Structure formats: structure tokens, C-alpha cells
Amino acid sequence: MTTPNHTAADALAMIAVLVRNRIEWATDSIAGNYPMDGETYDDVEARNELPLDALHDLIKDVCEIVAPHTEGVLYSDGRPVQSRVSLPGWSFRHLWPADPTTATEQHIETKCYDARYVVHIVPPSTMTLEPVRTLSVVRENDARE
């Protein structure tokens, strides 16, 4: 890692303004984008392309700005910045707070297709996935057979 010619605080200040400005512009552009007379869905989608691309580019811009100040995806104390668990068809992500004393334990139930899962978030940096077992009701007559 090379030594940058600016502080991490300078990079953070720049990122805060960059993110705010880009998101405000993109959301204003997308929110005011209604079909006009004679327009198709493709016309509206084409107008949304530029602000959506700008939001996607924001990821690259932020990563380039912070790269000289970070050791990848870990905080300075070795904890992950983000954890992820995989579910069928998607993943659940949790962003850990920079200050580990503010992290709280959470248990979040989510549905994925026909199954339910509980995501357990346990500070300082543990995240696990547990399938929810459903109970079935058995009538007395069925139980005797």
C-alpha cells in the first residue's frame, strides 16, 4: 500500500459529498421520470440508464478513493466490514459498524421461496443462517392410525 498525500479524514469528507451529490441527482432524475404522451416503457428505461449508470459508477469511485487508506474489507481491528450469508437465489448482507461497541445482536427471520430462515447477527462479527423448522398439526384420529 502506498502512502497517500491526503488524510483518511480528507478521503472520508470527499466520499460523503460525492455520495450525497450523486444519489441526490440520480434519485431526482429517476423519481421525475414518468412516461410522456406516446412514450413506451423502453423510452423511460433509456432515460433511467444514465442515472443508474452513475449510481453503479459510484461504487468504483468510492473504492478508488478509500483504497489508499484501507487494508481491504477489514476494519483496523481485523473485523470484517461486511458479512454475507447465502440463501437460495440471493444473499443477506450485514454492514458491521466501525465502532464495535455500537453493534447489537439481531435475529432476523426471512422467507426465501418456500422456506423460512433466521439470520443470527452476533457482535463483534458473527453471522449465521438457520432454517426455521415448521411444526405440523396432527389430528388425534391421524395419530392413532
The N- and C-terminal alpha carbons lie at a distance of 71 Å
Order of adjacent strands in the largest pleated sheet: 3-4-5
Q: Quick one: how many beta strands?
A: 5
Structural class: alpha+beta
| Number of domain modules | 2
Tell me the β content.
15-25%
Shape: flat
Radius of gyration: 23 Å
Helix content: 25-40%
Instruction: Spell the H/E element sequence.
Output: HHEEEEEH
Average of pLDDT: 87
- Number of separate helices: 3
Largest sheet: 3 strands, antiparallel
**Poorly predicted runs of 5 or more residues:** none
Structure report:
There is one protein chain. With 145 residues, this protein is α+β, with helices and mostly antiparallel strands. It has 2 domains: 8-69; 73-145, no CATH class. Helices cover 38% and strands 23% of the residues. The chain contains 3 helices and 5 strands, in the order ααβββββα. The chain has helices at residues 8-31, 41-66, 140-144, and strands at 82-87, 90-95, 106-112, 115-122, 126-131. The strands form 2 sheets. The chain has a 3-stranded antiparallel β-sheet with strand order 3-4-5, with no helix packed on it. It has a two-stranded antiparallel ribbon with strand order 1-2. β4 and β5 form a beta hairpin.
Name some characteristics of this structure.
23% strand; two-stranded antiparallel ribbon; single chain; 145 residues; 3 helices; alpha+beta; three-stranded antiparallel beta sheet
In short:
Helices cover 38% and strands 23% of the residues. The mean pLDDT is 87.
Task: Explain the layout of strands and helices.
Elements: H1 8-31, H2 41-66, E1 82-87, E2 90-95, E3 106-112, E4 115-122, E5 126-131, H3 140-144
Antiparallel strand pairs: 1-2, 3-4, 4-5
Helix pairs in contact: 1-2
